[in-house]
Automatic annotation (TrEMBL):
Residues 53-102, 119-177 are annotated as: Disordered. Residues 4-31 form a coiled coil. The keyword DNA-binding applies. It comes from Caballeronia calidae. InterPro entries: H-NS_C_dom (IPR027444). GO terms for molecular function: DNA binding. Residues 119-128, 136-146 have a biased composition (Low complexity). Pfam families: Histone_HNS. This is Histone family protein nucleoid-structuring protein H-NS. One of its GO terms (cellular component) is nucleoid. Its main location: cytoplasm. It is found in: Cytoplasm, Nucleoid. Belongs to the histone-like protein H-NS family. The keyword Secreted does not apply.
Length: 177
């Protein structure tokens, strides 16, 4: 039976052999790669362009649509900013998870954006929203009028026939603007 010392020495010998074999195999692989790069005229810059060089960063690039966070350049939030970090200039709307720069603040009022800045931002956002609502409301009113006309025509068609329904539909149709 082998002693513990003998087993440990065998393990060390096998480990050295495995390391030497790994070195030899990796040197062969590197030589093959260099030969192929020379054959096709590739450089390490070409590998980096193809995304094969340095490890890629995870996530979306800053400033892209739906980028995480609410720092400068982020366009993910539709709410106007309510708080601003005086050091970095990053903003936060006050909704969702608070960013690290305000998370542990005992009094967040120190980070509030001035009323004039916030009002201007909120006003421009409200004006845009109101304009969208105006278009949507007028479209919905027109659609409602069409529906009412159709339902009136359907009711009368059941009662008096198609000719009367057409007359009723023309009579109740909104005037073209």
């Amino acid at each position: 039976m082998a002693t513990l010392e003998q087993l440990e020495s065998q393990i060390q010998k096998l480990q050295r052999r495995a390391d030497a074999l790994r070195e030899r195999k990796s040197a062969e692989a590197i030589a093959k790669i260099r030969a192929m790069m020379d054959e096709y005229g590739l450089t390490t810059a070409d590998l980096a362009k193809a995304g094969l060089g340095a490890a890629k960063k995870r996530g979306r690039p800053p400033g892209s649509k739906n980028a995480g966070g609410s720092g400068k350049g982020a366009t993910g939030s539709r709410l106007p900013p309510k708080y601003r970090d005086p050091v970095s200039g990053a903003t936060w709307s006050g909704h969702a998870r608070p960013p690290a720069w305000i998370k542990d603040a005992p009094d967040r009022s120190a980070y509030l954006i001035d009323a004039a800045d916030g009002a201007a931002t909120a006003k421009s956002g409200a004006a845009k929203k109101g304009a969208r609502r105006g278009r949507a409301a007028s479209a919905s009113r027109a659609a409602g009028a069409k529906r009412a006309t159709r339902s009136a025509a359907k009711k009368s068609s059941k009662r008096v026939g198609r000719a009367a329904a057409r007359k009723t539909a023309r009579k109740h149709a909104p005037a073209a603007a």
